[in-house]
Amino acid sequence: GENVEQHPSTLSVQEGDSAVIKCTYSDSASNYFPWYKQELGKRPQLIIDIRSNVGEKKDQRIAVTLNKTAKHFSLHITETQPEDSAVYFCAASMGFNKFYFGSGTKLNVKP
Amino acid sequence: DAGVIQSPRHEVTEMGQEVTLRCKPISGHNSLFWYRQTMMRGLELLIYFNNNVPIDDSGMPEDRFSAKMPNASFSTLKIQPSEPRDSAVYFCASSSQTVSSGNTIYFGEGSWLTVV
Questions:
Q1: What's chain A's Rg over C-alpha atoms?
Q2: Which of A29, A100, B32, B95 has its CA 20 to 30 A from that of A43?
Q3: Three-state DSSP string of chain B
Q4: For testing contact with chain A, the best of B9, B46, B52, B101 (most A CBs within 10 A)
Q5: What is the pLDDT along chain B (116 residues), one digit of tens a residue?
Q6: Which residue among B45, B48, B101 places its CB closest to the CB of A31?
Q7: Which residues pair with B115 in a beta bridge?
Q8: CA proximity to B103, closest of A16, A6, A109, A92
Q9: In chain A, which residues have their Cβ closer than 8 Å to the Cβ of B48?
Q10: SS3 assignment for A31-91
Q11: A99 to chain B: which residues are within 8 Å by CB?
Q12: Minimum-distance CB partner of A94 among B56, B102, B110
């Protein structure tokens, strides 16, 4: 089955700096790659996603890039703010199959 | 849309008792997932239904765990008998999956289970 690896497990940045979280996947059939943000005590919520026919997608301060050849995708957060502090999960999916989640990255944005 | 609805939100039970967690997926979604989240193991997929049929239950930890989806708008996850190591947050999620492509899955608020 699919194997999704996520790095780093923790990331600490200064407010205003950029943060980058990287994920790799193993199954080339995976075609949908969402990112979820989970605040303490809350449920994971979708923040951005990308499909395999697109290389990059942006939404304000958040962007995701996908390299199908290398089988990796990344989340980029620019101009980080304290409210960006949370655990971020990447995932990979290929349709009528499981969603495979990464192990999560705890982002701490220091004011 | 009310989103994925789970109950109870919090439950504290004694070891050996039966626990039943409930989930109502988003109307129109054809896939339902049960996840367990702990600090040690992160988000684990327990079981996955498509069109009310269990597709993959390889994540169910033991025979003490069972899940059903009698219709498109209701699912249960049962633990009998419960043990302290079952303490976790149990998330239900739903999605509209197609044969060829994944789609966003939406999580419920979670059921926080503590077994003492």
A1: 13
A2: A29
A3: CCCCEEECCEEEECCCCCEEEEEECCCCCCEEEEEEEECCCEEEEEEEEECCEEEECCCCCCCCEEEEEEECCEEEEEECCCCHHHCEEEEEEEECCCCCCCCCCEECCCEEEEEC
A4: B101
A5: 679 999 999 999 999 999 999 999 999 998 999 999 998 888 889 999 999 999 889 889 889 999 999 999 999 999 999 999 999 999 999 998 776 666 888 999 999 999 99
A6: B101
A7: B13
A8: A92
A9: 98
A10: CEEEEEEECCCCCCEEEEEEECCCCEEEECCEEEEEECCCCEEEEEECCCCHHHCEEEEEE
A11: 33, 45, 95, 102, 105
A12: B102
Six-digit token string for B112: 């926080």
Of A64, A38, A43, A36, the closest CA to residue A52 belongs to A64
Nearest-by-CA chain A residue for B94 = A99
Residue type, position A61, single letter? R
